[in-house]
Design goal:
Blueprint lengths: L1 E6 L4 H12 L2 E7 L14 E3 L5 H11 L3 E4 L6 H6 L1 H22 L3 E7 L22 H20 L2 E7 L1 E3 L17 H9 L6 E4 L11 E2 L1 E3 H17 L5 E4 L5 E2 H12 L5 E4 L8 E2 L4 H7 L8 H13 L6
Helix pairs in contact: 1-7, 2-4, 4-5, 6-8, 6-10, 8-10
The structure holds uridine-5'-diphosphate.
The site of uridine-5'-diphosphate (UDP) has 14 residues, from helix 6 and strand 8.
Length: 327
Amino acid sequence: MTNILVTGGGGYIGSHACKLLAQAGYTPVTFDNFHTGWHDAVQFGPAVEGDLRDRAAIEGALQQYKPEAVLHFAALIEVGASVADPATYWNNNFLGAMTLFDAMVATGIDKLVFSSTCAVNGDLDGVLIDETSPINPMSPYGASKAAVELMLEGYVRAYGLRAMRFRYFNVAGADPQAQVGEHHQPETHLVPLILQTIQGHRDSLKIFGTDYPTRDGTSVRDYVHVVDLIRAHIAAIDYLDRDTRVPLLCLGTGQGMTVKEIIAAAQSVTGKTVAHEIAPRRDGDPASLVCGSALAQRELGWHPTLSTPEQIIGDAWRWHETGHYAS
Ligand code: UDP
């Protein structure tokens, strides 16, 4: 069996990667410090509990499992928390990535897929974002991801790593079989917050801003189903064997949805009302982030097929109904 090392395999996106890797015939090996990841999300292969900043731990895992590639998801992801405590974000996201890349170079593991984010682009005034869009992060979170992207360029050139960087837009939804799903503590993301409100775990959803220059005044995001997103990663493992000329791809659908439209879709899918109230804009939130993914379609043959609001919310709802998130 071919091993793939999944950093952050206990997290939301990492655990879905492990499931889809196992379905594709790989053995996913989770490497996670379980500070924000969950032990019960690791169901599809072995786990190593360790911190990426611990060089001996990550190098030991690479030596033991000799993975064909590394999918690097492990990171802190909250924009607001990064503004309040940038040192923690730089230490975790930058130093963690650097230690991982150094350990890969030292052990001769040379294939890498890195999770980056549209937060590296900052606010682009509603234009359709693509790989050529300027880098202008608005938070230490975005800056730490941008810095890792730039670090990788040098490592690829100097040390022969083969690396794909994916910039994610709004990843949402869950495994259609509800074995794994989205579970953050604390939760800050729109879709799970809506569903938790419907379930009565929250009194009401706050809509952050109704005065944006968008079609209904609420902010617009490009929501990608987590399974579609992971399919691009699995395609990239093969892609890097035949081509490394395009090392950066944006993964979005080209279709933006407002907060109010997502609420309406959730009400229609679940048949329940979402109690909500209007709140001020959240610091650092751009009005609109939508991405063209023509390049990902051309290079990887990537076509998102599950990224409709109905499918995203339906799958997330099934996961929420399992009661897992409350554990
Ligand atoms: N949002 C909201 N209320 C919430 C959480 C999010 O109105 O309780 C909005 C937020 O302003 C953004 C969109 O929903 O425009 C998606 O936010 P999320 O935190 O899910 O992802 P982000 O865009 O920050 O990566």
